[in-house]
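We read letters as residues; the fold follows as tokens. Both lines appear below.
***
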Amino acid sequence: MVKWNSNFSYAIGLFTADGNISPDGRHLEFCSKDLELVKSIKKCFNLNNKICRKQRGTHPKKWYHRIQFGNKELYNFLIKIGLTPNKSKSLAYLNVPGEYFDDFLRGLIDGDGTIGYFMHPESKEKQFRIRIASGSKSFLEWLGGEINKFLSIKGKICQVPRTHELCYYKKASKKIADFIYYRSNVICLKRKFEIAKLMT
């Protein structure tokens, strides 16, 4: 039986970012440049499947890590909460329990987000920024509303080449970092956690 918990919710965030649902009603795939994330999916979904490598295109550096698996129960669960085959542009919202939204958001940011700094064009000072990318503007609008509900902050949706980004700056970014890294030992992508720690 599929049940929500912290690690499972994190994996749902990761899968929302980089997962693929086959139209066949059973098979799922997760693919990422970060082997650490694929290992996390394997752990959180309790999989025994082998992690392989996959090349995208012909560029010698475009190798990804991938895990494929068949699980009808999980497949149906993902469909029920709002994920679909070819979800990149059709995704609108997800039914995530409020008590696990922080874990879900951490997974989503680890998969499709950026945590870092930018140089303010006027003050020339480094400022903290968190961005979350999606091909679906509707999904980012829903996500921004959920983040605002929990943290009382508003982000800005920007059009960038081939996608959209939900962006948070300065104090708003710090609020998100504190929210998703509520413990030092939560499962996460370590390199993004290390950057976020600089804001504490």
Q: What stands out?
A: The beta strands are 19-21, 27-32, 52-55, 63-70, 113-119, 126-134, 156-160, 163-169. The first strand starts at residue 19 and ends at 21. The domain at 106-197 is CATH 3.10.28.10 (Endonuclease I-creI). The mean pLDDT is 91.
